[in-house]
UniProtKB/TrEMBL annotation:
Residues of the Glutamyl/glutaminyl-tRNA synthetase class Ib catalytic domain: 17-334
Subcellular locations according to the entry: Cytoplasm
Residue ranges of every copy of the Aminoacyl-tRNA synthetase class I anticodon-binding domain listed in the record: 351-498
UniProt binding sites for ATP: 271
UniProt-listed Pfam families: Anticodon_2, tRNA-synt_1c
Protein name listed in UniProt: Glutamate--tRNA ligase
Length: 504
């Protein structure tokens, strides 16, 4: 028996669209979870609709206040805002499941009155025994035995001291919906039995409270991960019952986003994979603009030949119908490259300010910086902005400018050419002739080029390599002559002399 989508399926568009983000506060926010928030937010903002942020915190053993605060921090850092929900309030408060039990009880009463749920007394052992006796596989589970219990049978069970669970009376026909990402999907009649929505003792289950919250909050579009797609059948059945009971008058539209895979293989990106840790990515030096851009590419694209775009451009272009149903793969190198593009888009002063936590975290400057540290930071930041992908690279690239003693990388010293001492001595001689007050990048280059390139007959890469190591302790550094200008004549010469002494 075939079935069309429920005739009461919402036709909401534009500002009538309402989406939700409803995580459980367990563990750290991870890439897949935040991608779900991002797509809901982008869809709401694109259409001028609203996003509701509620918390599913009924698992007391696993939920934590720390995780809740981390969720808030993650969304605020990425500038994913919401219109109603926790911390903001709204017409459908409270927005925590743990505070909504009276509402769930009221909805259950309406479902009971409408006759779309029934008392169930069967234990797991009794269900297994009946299945065995009737030649049914155990895996088929509940056999709808309690659907038609008489009042006498119910009374007898209660006399034994049993409390009933409440099961939804599942429709005896196919259930069909049109997925916003995957097209028409049909769940055949009989593919799942009547299911428990409230346990014995009155404890509501997730399969009940999640759709009930959506219904009571007027959610028109449920956008979530592909792994939740099998539960849609039960949600469609429950929505039909909620409509019959007068709790709501429409069925939302569903869209199931693709899985996010790890960099290799075909396994879902594990929550324990360091790449999935949003805060670890921030610690490495992602800026929110870059990570937001990359996360939006996990299943969607703005154009076939374009990967880098702004938040406003994302909002203007995003449509959930354009999301690719195929799995998306997390590519760390691509993510970092896109982040680098956004780093280069920052205003110089903004870029310099964002380096402060990373430099301070490495013990190189104070937070906030002293006047001298800020002056050096503002002068040196433009030297590395074009070559930096992650802000976490700042201590390695700029640390030598804030540190009196040079810390030499082993590979930098071991890679010095045999004539490094000669090059350094010649450089000191040339730089001594440059006046202290005129020690600019241009003057330094004008002094060194004749001494090293012409005088010693060296190629620039060979000539200037030892100088980089002397100043920064590394083989790679910001532009050499500009770095010398920032350090000043006496400090530059001191460092060149120091490496001469070190290598003998």
């Amino acid at each position: 028996m075939s079935s069309a989508p429920h005739p009461a399926t919402t036709t909401a568009t534009g500002s009538d669209i309402r989406v939700r983000f409803c995580p459980s506060p367990t563990g750290l926010p991870h890439v897949g979870l935040i991608r779900t928030a991002l797509f809901n937010w982008a869809y709401a903002r694109h259409n001028g609709g609203k996003m509701v942020f509620r918390i599913e915190d009924t698992d007391a053993a696993r939920d934590s206040e720390e995780s809740y605060q981390q969720l808030l921090e993650a969304l605020r850092w990425l500038e994913i805002d919401w219109d109603e929900g926790v911390e903001k309030g709204g017409p459908h408060a409270p927005y925590r499941q743990s505070q909504r039990h009276e509402l769930y009880r009221g909805v259950l009463d309406k479902l009971i009155a409408a006759g779309v749920v029934y008392e169930s007394y069967s234990t797991a052992e009794e269900i297994d025994a009946r299945n065995e006796a009737n030649g049914r596989a155990k895996q088929l589970g509940y056999d709808n035995f309690d659907r038609d219990l008489t009042d006498e049978q119910k009374a007898a069970f209660r006399a034994e001291g049993r409390e009933p669970a409440w099961r939804l009376r599942v429709p005896d026909h196919d259930l069909t919906y049109v997925d916003l990402i995957r097209g028409e999907v049909t769940f055949p009649a009989g593919s799942f039995p009547d299911f428990v929505i409230v346990r014995a003792g009155g404890i509501p289950l997730y399969t009940f409270v999640n759709p009930v919250d959506d219904a009571l909050m007027g959610i028109t579009h449920v956008l979530r991960g592909e792994d939740l797609m099998p539960s849609t059948a039960r949600q469609l059945a429950l929505y039909a019952a909620l409509i019959e009971a007068g709790v709501t008058d429409f069925v939302p539209r569903f869209g199931h986003m693709p899985l996010v895979l790890g960099e290799t293989g075909n396994k879902k990106l594990s929550k324990r994979d360091p790449k999935a840790d949003l805060f670890l990515q921030r610690e490495k030096g992602f800026i929110h603009e870059g990570l937001l851009n990359y996360l939006s590419l996990l299943g969607w694209s703005i154009a076939a030949d374009r990967d880098v775009f702004t938040r406003d451009e994302l909002i203007a272009a995003f449509d959930i119908a354009d999301v690719n149903p195929n799995p998306a793969r997390f590519d760390q190198k691509k993510a970092e490259s896109i982040n680098g593009d956004h780093v280069r888009m920052l205003a110089p002063a903004d870029f310099a300010e964002r380096l402060v936590p990373y430099l301070a975290g490495a013990g190189l400057i104070e937070n906030p910086p002293t006047a001298g540290e800020r002056e050096m930071l503002e002068a040196s930041a433009p030297l590395v902005q074009e070559r930096m992908q992650l802000l976490g690279d700042a201590p390695g690239l700029l640390g030598f400018l804030f540190r009196a003693d040079v810390s030499y990388d082993d590979d930098a010293v071991s890679g010095l050419p045999a004539n490094a001492g000669e090059v350094l001595v010649a450089s000191v001689g040339a730089l001594e002739l440059v006046p202290e007050q005129g020690f600019t990048a241009a003057a330094v280059q004008d002094a060194l080029a004749p001494a090293l390139i012409e005088g010693l007959g060296l190629k620039p890469r060979v000539a200037y390599g030892p100088l980089r190591v002397a100043l920064s302790g590394r083989r790679v550094s910001p532009p050499l002559f500009e770095s010398m200008e920032l350090l000043g004549k006496s400090e530059t010469v001191r460092r060149l002399d120091a490496l001469v002494q070190r290598i003998g």
